[in-house]
Amino acid sequence: MLKNMQLFVEVAKAKSFRKAGEHLGIPNATVSRRISELEKDVGLRLFTRTTRQVDLTDAGRTYFEDCERIIEDAQLAHQALMDIHTKPKGLIRISMPVDFSNVFLSKLLVDFSLKYPEIHFDLDLTPASANVVGDDVDVAIRMRQPTEQNVIAKKIATMGAELYASPTYLKIKGTPRTPKDLLKHTCLRMRNGPWVLQRIDGSKQVDIPVVGQYVVNNVGYLRNLALLDQGIFFTAEKMIAAELKSRALVRVLPNWAMQDVSIYLLTGTRLLPSKVRMLVDYLTKHLQVAVSG
After folding, report:
1. For residues 271 and 75, is the Cβ–Cβ distance under 8 A?
2. What is the model's pLDDT at position 84?
3. How many CA atoms lie within 13 A of 120 on its CB side?
4. Which residues contact 39 (CB under 8 A, 6 or more apart)?
5. Residues facing residue 47 across a β-bridge
6. Residue 226, phi then psi, degrees to nearest 5
7. Which residues are CB-neighbours of 245 under 8 A, at least 6 positions away?
8. For domain 2-84, is the CATH number 1.10.472.10?
9. Which helix (H) or strand (E) holds 173?
10. Sequence-separated (6 or more) residues with CB below 8 Å from residue 250
11. pLDDT above 80 for 293
12. pLDDT for residue 92
């Protein structure tokens, strides 16, 4: 029955018995017979047939979702068994945010590569977000809730973020005492929208509609603007450890922090080659420790 379910999924995707048969190397008559057998087994009509194409019935659409998941799970189980006998090797293409990767991912990837020396990496650290479905990318790391369609998104870590500015800026503009004071300041932002701040004891949360001259998609550039006395920005403490040590940047509103930043790992499918799956498992296990430790 599993083979007929797999055939049913292929027909549903192709909307054609002939095209599904060509893809699987099965005669059209065999496809038709096996789909009829499946419909008899489940006791429901799964397709409406016309001279040009076949379409799913309401029952067929429900059955398709279940069948697709069952077949993918079976393929994953089979792949896991095959991986036991093979040593992972080959190329993994990763899209990553540049500053976050420099601080948190470089060491993890080096440790992973030492463990699996036959795996190689093609790393894309450009500002534009590559698409794991349409672009030539196996894995993407994102610092926000993904909006892409048809991707598998897994939250693998959360990172705290605080407010910082240069002492010179604060001397000129004054030091904020409450979150509302940020409305009087130049705020350096990653995107438009209010800043969500919460007391470090968790007792209160506020949304502040901050404004400023710059909206930038790179935290390193925001850090440079802050070092040039251009305003207040937020980031993780580890991202600016050297600047904090030298007092080039200082904490603002120390009793408050920004809402945690969620870190997502994206793939185009759950059915991953062993090399990619091992990297996903490795980052899932170790990234939160690297971010928090």
Report:
1. yes
2. 53
3. 3
4. 45, 46, 47
5. 56
6. -65, -40
7. none
8. no
9. helix 167-173
10. 164, 165, 166, 167, 170, 244
11. no
12. 94
Cβ–Cβ < 8 Å for 86, 57? no
For 270, other C-beta atoms within 10 Å of its C-beta total: 13
Q: Which structure tokens are listed for 203?
A: 């007792």
First to last CA, the chain: 50
pLDDT by residue (tens digit) across 56-76?
888 888 888 888 888 777 777
Each residue of 158-176: b (16+ CB within 10 Å) or e? ebbbbbbbbeebbeeeeeb
- Return the structure tokens found at 20: 């599904």
pLDDT digits 0-9 by tens, 65-109: 888 888 777 777 766 666 655 678 889 999 998 999 999 999 999
Q: Which single residue is written with the structure tokens 């407010």?
A: 163
Contacts 24+ apart (CB under 8 A), 71-77: 71/2, 71/5, 71/6, 71/9, 72/269, 72/270, 72/271, 74/2, 75/271, 76/270, 76/271
Where do we find the tokens 């894309």? 124
88-293 to CATH, choices 3.30.565.10, 3.40.250.10, 3.40.50.170, 3.40.190.290: 3.40.190.290
What are the residue ranges spanned by the domains of the chain? 2-84, 88-293
Element spanning 206, H or E: strand 205-208
Mean pLDDT for the stretch of residues 118-128: 85
User: What are 228's two structure tokens?
Assistant: 């040039």
CB 6 within 8 A of CB 34: no
The whole-angstrom separation of Cα 252 and Cα 166 is: 9
> What is the spatial distance between Cα 68 and Cα 175, in angstroms, rounded to a whole number?
57
Q: Which residue has the tokens 């008559």?
A: 29
